[in-house]
Amino acid sequence: MTRLQRCLHPALLATSLLLAGCSSLIGGPRETPTIYAPEPARRVDPSWPAVDWSLALARSGEAQMEDGPRIVVSPVPGELQVYRGALWARTPAEMVQDAVLRTLEDSGKLPLVARQGSGLSADYRLLLEVRAFRAEYAGSALPAAVVEVNATLLHLRDQSVAGSRNFRQSQPATGVAVAEVADAFSQALAGLSHDVAGWSLQAGQAHAGQPHPSAPAR
Predict the structure, then answer these.
(1) 3-state SS assignment for residue 128
(2) Comparing C-alpha atoms, which of 208, 183, 199 is closest to residue 71?
(3) pLDDT at 13 > cutoff 70
(4) Which end of the chain is more exposed for a tag (fewer CB within 10 A), N or C?
């Protein structure tokens, strides 16, 4: 061994140990992730009011860990982890917005509903903020898909708040496999989108029946 090799050997050994440690922290060799795309059933209620105003849906709030592509799980309260080798096809905020939008479209109760930015000149805007989108064990043997969303309905002409409410759905999974957890999220999204859509129509209709000040001159 040359003098140069003797000098480099300790540094190379330390680097190898560091890389080995990092490999254990990130879960070892890379693997192709499985992509999950929940398809919640759309549930509409014929008793929802038919309205004559238009609605635009928008996302609200800053991106959080639970609004990323990783599937978050809470094994114990206060601790968040992610399922290894599993990703969402879309972010939770996108899934929530899409589920609510499709439910409102299928209801046939509005003349027009679309995402904000689509060019629609809407009467109301529905802001949806995802506050929880995770699998929770909470002391149980099986996890439950927990979806929590804050919805705020704004009247755009006078910028008044027509209503604000928190919605939460918890759907137990049939097993601990990621595919079973993803299916539980499909059911939780179906229930949440039903509740948000119905509330939006009722809150907006109640607000539309009240007198409103004229829009301020610019």
Answers:
(1) strand
(2) 183
(3) no
(4) C
In whole angstroms, what is the distance from residue 2 CA to residue 115 CA?
68
Q: Using CA atoms, how far apart are residues 111 and 38, in angstroms rounded to an integer?
A: 28
Report the distance separating Cα 35 and Cα 50, nearest Å: 38
Rounded CA gap, 184 and 176, in Å? 11
Q: Which two tokens stand for residue 75?
A: 């094994």
Position 167 confidence tier, pLDDT thresholds 50, 70, 90: very high
What is the rounded CA–CA span in Å between residue 71 and residue 136? Answer: 11
Q: How far is CA 76 from CA 79, 80, 140, in A?
A: 6, 8, 10
Look at residue 62 in the predicted model and tell me its pLDDT: 60
Distance CA(133)–CA(18), nearest Å, equals: 34
Residues in the chain: 218
HSE of 105 in the Cβ direction (CA atoms, 13 Å)?
12
**Three-class DSSP category at 169:** strand
pTM above the 0.85 mark?
no
